[in-house]
Amino acid sequence: MKRLPDARLERVLASLALVIISLISLTNVVTRYVTGGSLAFTEEFSVFLMVVVTFAGASVALRRNGHIRIGLLERALPGAPRKVLIVFQWLCGSVVLGLITWFGGKLAWQEYQWGSLSPGLGLPQWWYVVWLPVLSAAMLVRLAQQTLDRLRGRLEDES
Question: Coiled coil located at which positions (predicted)?
């Protein structure tokens, strides 16, 4: 059995965020059942953690070559043109992730400078926003690793 490449840090982060979301939701359900009211702050944390799960999970999928794409053209091309297509795919993905990293970083910095507070708990908003550029930068790294593996023939597309 061939072992897939791993993005251990992102996998652990996504798993931890998912466990915390589950515990928050369970606590909220029990609280609502027992007291008739809910914990208002849970939505703020859950939305933030869902973003972490999404980006960390996408990073793991990138590393494992598990993102959905149509490989018909890629499989039909011979060696050199196929590699050009893989590099083009890397370039397109890098541009998008680079823009997310750049603008997410600018947003986090602005939130820090302005001292914006979250609406529910009054925590610094940048605590939530800073994960966007950090995890999209991690995705850039995983995309580069995946592309190198594909160019070297270590990762094959599904048939």
Answer: none
**Contact criterion met (CB below 8 Å) for 94 and 49:** no
Return the structure tokens found at 53: 């799960």
How many angstroms separate the CA atoms of 40 and 46, rounded?
Answer: 11
CB 143 within 8 A of CB 90: yes
Ranges of each domain in the chain: 8-151
Q: Determine the Cα–Cα distance for residues 2 and 30; give it in Å rounded to an integer.
A: 44
| Confidence category of residue 2, pLDDT binned at 50, 70, 90 | low
- Evaluate the CA torsion angle 133, 136, 142, 147 in order and state its sign: negative
DSSP result, 115-156:
T-B-TTT--BTHHHHTHHHHHHHHHHHHHHHHHHHHHTTSSP
Q: DSSP 3-state assignment of 6?
A: coil
| pLDDT for the residue numbered 79 | 87
Q: Which two tokens stand for residue 91?
A: 């370039």
Q: Which helix (H) or strand (E) holds 38?
A: none
